[in-house]
Amino acid sequence: MHDFHLHSNYSDGTFLLQMVRAAESAGLGGIGVTDHCTISTRDRPQSMRATHGFNLDLTYERRRRGIERVREQTEIAVYDAVEMDYHPDDEAEIRSFLDEANFDYAIGSVHELAGRNVQVPSHFSDESDAGLDDLVEQYVESLVQLIESELFDVAAHLDLFERTSPLAGRATIDQYERIARAFDDSRTVPEINAGRALRDRAIVHPRPGLLEILLDHGVAFTIGSDSHAPAEVENRTPFLQEFVDEKGVTPVDPPGLERVE
Ligand SMILES: [Zn+2]
Ligand SMILES: [Zn+2]
């Protein structure tokens, strides 16, 4: 199995070589290093970039040299990839950066909802029921645009809002169907994301209702642990292996990836 979604010290993860060593001991055949990258001319992402330092556009060449060194020290495949923030208004900037950087593949993520980080429950605690339903609809609309843009090989953690208690459990079958139809017509594939799989409120993205509809549509999935630390790679790898066996998911590579054996 390959793990196509994990982070290193080039964004908010642990040193690259330690992540590779963890992948070796977990028995993975390969990993894709997908550090966060925010490219936007809008104000809020600009300030996020400044505070979090998700500036892979400035450091990817240095990271690429690091990945080349690390490849000489391991038997497993190590891919040079990215997790880009997606917002419909940023498409032109994202496209030109991806053309320039020429990663092995790219993951796209909707992390922002109505100018807020979708993963922080307190950002949504003052909203009415109707307001929360509307926010979930906005999220789904951004995700559908991400899929239709075909900017990315992989769409990350499709129902990320399910982590966020005020927003969880509000998505409808009709929204799930729209997501599935968007994948029917796109080169982009979703991932099985284990980023919250081993917590108290255990969540694998996509949640069962959405997963079932996507499988009915014959949609393929990549596998991504979304690990930021070595112990996460070690714990999530066997979990993901079991999960895909149990659900009958046949994992695929990111569509644009050329594997090195
Ligand atoms: Zn993400
Ligand atoms: Zn991630």
Overview of this protein structure:
The structure is a single chain. The chain is built from 8 helices and 10 strands. It is of the alpha/beta class and 261 residues long. It has a single domain, classed as Metal-dependent hydrolases (TIM Barrel, Alpha-Beta Barrel), CATH 3.20.20. Strands 1, 2, 3, 4, 7, 8, 9 and 10 form an 8-stranded mixed β-sheet that branches. A two-stranded antiparallel ribbon has the order 5-6. The longest helix has 21 residues. The model has no long low-confidence stretch (mean pLDDT 96). The structure holds zinc ion (ZN) (2 copies).
| Alpha carbon gap, first and last residue | 13 Å
**Beta-strand content bin:** 15-25%
Q: By CATH's scheme, which homologous superfamily applies? A: Metal-dependent hydrolases
Q: Please give the domain count.
A: 1
Number of strands: 10
The geometry reads as: globular
The low-confidence parts are: none
Helix percent reads: 40-55%
- Mean model confidence by pLDDT: 96
